């Protein structure tokens, strides 16, 4: 895959219609391996409310998960609830995270 922007390992991204999580760091336009299956910790829009088992979408402008909505890309299902203003999940400091499984 070709990185659509500079990416750090673990960041989500979209290439065409494919959502993946970078397995390595990559410069904008550089080659990288994207993982398309698994459970990942990704940033979530702070105000988004996503129930366990709820659909998760990707905001490709803000580069974060959000609840489904117009202009967002469906990327998976939450395996743990993440509420509005939720504290960091799974001990990830200074971030509000959403766990997803890529479909």
Describe this structure as you would to a colleague.
The chain has strands spanning 12-15, 18-22, 34-35, 39-43, 55-59, 64-66, 73-78, 97-102. The protein is 0% helix and 35% strand. It is elongated and about 35 Å long.
Number of strands: 8
Main sheet properties: 5 strands, antiparallel
The N- and C-terminal alpha carbons lie at a distance of 19 Å
Share of residues in strands: 25-35%
Radius of gyration: 13 Å
Strands of the biggest beta sheet: in what spatial order? 4-8-7-5-6
Approximately how much helix is present in the residues? under 10%
Uncertain stretches of 5 or more adjacent residues: 87-98
Mean pLDDT: 81
Overall spatial form = elongated
Helix segment tally: 0
Structural class by SSE content? mainly beta
Q: What is the ordering of alpha helices and beta strands?
A: EEEEEEEE
Strand-helix topology:
Layout: E1 12-15, E2 18-22, E3 34-35, E4 39-43, E5 55-59, E6 64-66, E7 73-78, E8 97-102
